[in-house]
Amino acid sequence: MIHEQVELHNVEELVRVEGRPGLLMQRVPESVRAGLLEKGREQIRRAALLEIRFGLETGTAAITLASFGGVSQVKVFYGDYEVESRQIGETPTTIEIADEGPEPGFQFRSPWSEGVPRPSFGPIWRILVHGHEVHLLGLEGEGLRPPAPHEQPALRYLAYGTSITFGIAASSPEVTYVAQTAWRLGLDALNLGMPGSAHCEQAIAEHIAARGDWDIATLCISVNMLNQGIPADRFADQAAAMIRTIAAAHPGKPLVCIGLFPSYADLGWTWPEREVRSTSGEYRAALWDVVQRCGFPQVRYANGGELLDDWRGLSHDLLHPASSGMIQIGERLASVMRPLLPTPKK
After folding, report:
1. What pLDDT, on a 0 to 100 scale, did the predictor assign at position 102?
2. What is the distance between the alpha carbons of residues 126 and 320, in angstroms, rounded to a whole number?
3. How many Cα neighbours within 13 Å face the side chain of 109?
4. For 168-183, what is each residue's pLDDT tens digit?
């Protein structure tokens, strides 16, 4: 969305929250959030690969942010290139950017005119935020402009899933498997990961189906349902409904369904105080069967155990992939998705 001469990437609505300053940058509209389960209504408010993007023609720019519910990470990029990293909390933080002298972060003038490769992004500023509920408090700068289409990737990748898709155990947002996959394929990522709350609800399925801003999508479903006692047959019904809703609305767009990654569940263990009614193997088999029977040729199955086949890629909880695991998933998922990508429109 465009807001005050900048583009808010992966933001569908700006929401006022009682008792807080500024506007919450939310990944789905309030009407969609209302249709989610209680935890999902909370988690979808968290920032996941959100970006404030803009060109700066002259002068300086100042972007003021605050993070509620926990500390969020902020990464500043100039085009494809990282400039700085910081953390923000509830105390308002202003990020200042100046367009004067050498290009910021470089020791020489205008690398873009000297043939520096820029495969994905042109000379625009990208303020990436990831973590908790991030509010936009202020935008200042007379020379601000939204990015032009040619300054951004031509194709978009939408990812729905659990905390693994969100990237809960990754050391940095650009190391999440969604960002890693997008980076390798030159795609623009839209992250709809929902920690602890990816239940394939009809509201989120219809939202993804109604969106026209993606070219390829993945559904990583759903260790949340397994851990929260949903039997495999009920999971299959909900997954099938979600897949049908999205695939029917986008018959020409690839939809890759990712089975469960390796976890403690494969060892027969359960999360404390949880009653599990199916095995991870039954969940994988159920999703594979749903994909085979769905009747949509653009829907594919990706085996999570093949995307991540080294247990050392997990974090200490033996559930969430850590950074090395995220990188492996990104590499292998990119290989799965590469032959499915459509030709960008000129």
Report:
1. 44
2. 27
3. 2
4. 999 999 999 999 999 9
Structural tokens at position 318? 């033996």
120 and 53 within one domain = yes
State the pLDDT at residue 118.
66
Determine the Cα–Cα distance for residues 316 and 313; give it in Å rounded to an integer: 10
Indicate if 201 and 118 belong to the same structural domain.
no
Structure tokens at 119: 């495969």
67 within 8 A of 21, measured Cβ to Cβ: no
pTM: 0.95
Q: Which residues contact 175 (CB under 8 A, 6 or more apart)?
A: 167, 323, 326, 327
pLDDT of 22 reads 97
CATH number of the domain that residue 49 is part of:
2.60.120.260
Residue 205 has pLDDT above 90, yes or no: yes
**Residue 260's CATH number:** 3.40.50.1110
Question: Which residues on neighbouring strands pair with residue 193, listed in sequence order?
Answer: 161
Task: Show which of 122, 151, 180 is a domain's final residue.
Answer: 151
Q: Which amino acid belongs to residue 252?
A: G
Torsion sign (Cα): 221, 321, 302, 131: positive
Average pLDDT of the chain, as a whole number: 94
Q: Dihedral (C-alpha) 228, 233, 236, 240: value to the nearest 10 degrees? A: -130
